[in-house]
Amino acid sequence: MSRAAATLRAVASPDPSPAAPVVRLEDLLEKVARGDEAAFAEVFTRASGPVHGLVRRVLRDPAQSEEVTQEVMLNVWRSATRFDAAQGSAMAWIMTMAHRRAVDRVRSEQSATDRVRRLGGREVLPAFDEVAETVEIHLEREAVRRCLTSLTDLQRESIDLAYYAGKSYREVSELLDVPLGTVKTRMRDGLIRLRDCLGVTA
Amino acid sequence: MTDPHALSGAYAVGALNETEQAEFEAHLQSCAPCQIEVRELLETTALLGIAAAQPVPPALRAAVLDEVSRTRQLPPVVVSLQAHARKRGFALRRWSLTAAACLAVFTIGLGAYAGQLQHENSDLRHRGDQVAALQTAADARTITSADGGATATVTVSRSANQMEFLSSGLSMHKGRTYQLWLIGPTGPRSAGIFSTDNGKHAPRLFTGPGDATVLAVTEEPAGGSAQPTTQPIIKVPLPTA
Lengths: 202, 241
Known about the structure:
The complex is a heterodimer of chains A (202) and B (241). Chain A is mainly α. Chain A has 2 domains: 16-115, Rna Polymerase Sigma Factor, Chain: A (Orthogonal Bundle); 120-202, Winged helix-like DNA-binding domain superfamily/Winged helix DNA-binding domain (Arc Repressor Mutant, subunit A). Chain A has helices spanning 3-11, 25-33, 37-59, 62-79, 90-113, 135-149, 153-164, 169-176, 180-198. In chain B, the strands form 2 sheets. In chain B, strands 1-2-3-6 form a 4-stranded antiparallel beta sheet. The two termini of chain B are 15 Å apart. Mean pLDDT of chain B is 75; it is low at 78-125. At the A-B interface, helix 1, helix 3, helix 4, helix 5 and helix 6 of A face helix 1, helix 3, helix 4 and helix 5 of B.
């Protein structure tokens, strides 16, 4: 297993002491799919922090973020029956769902109010002491932080604006004043560089 | 779309609009290397998400666990990630097309095809060809609509003039049947009837859409009706081009 895949598993199991057998998030979801509420409570424990953090990064507003986190976690319960491990990890499934829901929300908001997001001096990741975190999430955060520094400024900014701020690539292109094609390319090669740095395999 | 491959990064960070996303996912269907790349990039962005983790307020946990005990789960039909993501808050689902949905429909179609071939039925072999034609058509689109507890997924290709309909969560009154309607400028015309077993049914494959702009499902007396006699349970807007 790759390091990142191991991390995804580790994030999904906050108590990796050898005495406690590690239950994979995928296996928990399988139980959830059969209506096991206790298994869902465990999925909630493992996944809600990442979901909530990501949703808050995209939406910023605490009340809205809580609402969307709630929707996403409830949807994990409702659609666990449809999770397909052949398509990717459970964590990626949940995080993709969370991101799409948050982005949907931010875009419908934007079309109504055209919120302007401050660009300058934004921290890419929350400060260390901002979050009470598990060891695994701390390690993950450090790996992501380190790998993000291996990107060019344009790659990093493109990915940051799209993923963490919910911007479309057209908006990214305008905000960074670079051609559309360049933004697409930088998103892709930046993610590929991140993927290799983080040791992700499908 | 110029070079679909180049969009994998923008897709994985969620930077495409819905039309572009649908187009990219249509491309994904026929591009195995892209599927692997996208999967890896989605695992990568998941790590970016995990790195932003923040603790959840305890009241939120209690609220969700409470709601879960009162919330029914979806029937186990494979649908798209978008469908998962947008399940809530969208009465009439907008464009939603994914490789997952298409592959699921295709796989179910092929599964039915394989099973039926044992009977050496040439009609069914023809059906398999139609499914393949639909799924490989460049303009094939999949639209998902949800209303109440029911979800409908429609795959449509105007060039192949083929459609496929799959739903879940439709529960029927005894002695009744479901009927599909293609609604165009000249009104509704029947696209066939079907029944469900525990809310599930085999994919319905039929010719269309022609000039229709909406696919609707109504409940009708057994055997179906010449014209709809009840209000549609679910309506799916069809792509115009």
